[in-house]
Design a protein that fits this description.
Helix content: 40-55%
Low-confidence stretches: 125-148
Order of helices and strands: HEHEHEHH
Number of strands: 3
Shape: elongated
Mean pLDDT: 85
Number of helices: 5
Structural class: mainly alpha
Number of domains: 1
Strand content: 5-15%
Radius of gyration: 20 Å
Largest sheet: 3 strands, parallel
C-alpha cells in the first residue's frame, strides 16, 4: 500500500485525504502516514476504512489509527449499516429502530476514535456525548461606543 501511494504521488496524484484499509499493527499505520505526508505534504490526512469487517476488527483499527499522527478519521459503512438495513428490509425491525441502531453504531466509532486519539496524542477530543454543553466561551460584552 505504501509503495502504491508513493508511486501515485510521484505521478502527480495529490489527494488531500488517503483512504486506507484497516491494518493490523501500529507500525503499519505509521508507515502509511509517513509516506502519505512525505516531502512537505504535512497537511495530507489518512482515514481508515472498515472493509465491511466485524465490530472487533473495526474497533481495533480505529483505536490504532487514532493514535497515529496523520490519521484524521474513518469511513465505516457496511459495518455500521448493513445488519440494521437487512433487518429493516426483512421487516424484522421498524425504520425508527434501524435508524437508531445505525446512529448508535456510528456514535460508537466516533467515541472509539476520539478516546484513542485523546489518550495517545494528548489532545482534547473527548467524545461529544461526554462534553459538557456550552463549552464555548461567551463573547465579551460590547464596549461603549461600539456598534452591535
Amino acid at each position: 500500500m505504501a509503495r502504491s501511494i508513493r508511486e501515485l504521488q510521484d505521478a502527480g496524484v495529490e489527494p488531500d485525504v488517503w483512504k486506507i484499509e484497516g491494518l493490523e499493527r501500529h507500525g503499519d499505520f505509521e508507515a502509511i502516514a509517513a509516506v502519505a505526508r512525505r516531502d512537505a505534504r504535512g497537511n495530507v490526512g489518512c482515514i481508515v476504512l472498515g472493509r465491511g469487517e466485524n465490530e472487533q476488527h473495526v474497533r481495533a483499527w480505529l483505536a490504532t489509527a487514532a493514535a497515529v499522527r496523520g490519521f484524521i478519521g474513518f469511513a465505516v459503512g457496511r459495518t455500521t449499516f448493513w445488519e440494521p438495513l437487512v433487518a429493516l428490509r426483512d421487516e424484522e425491525i421498524a425504520r425508527e429502530a434501524a435508524v437508531a441502531e445505525i446512529a448508535r453504531r456510528y456514535r460508537q466509532w466516533v467515541d472509539v476514535f476520539e478516546q484513542a486519539r485523546s489518550a495517545a496524542l494528548g489532545c482534547d477530543s473527548a467524545p461529544a456525548a461526554a462534553r459538557p454543553p456550552d463549552t464555548v466561551a461567551p463573547a465579551p460584552p460590547p464596549q461603549h461606543g461600539s456598534e452591535p
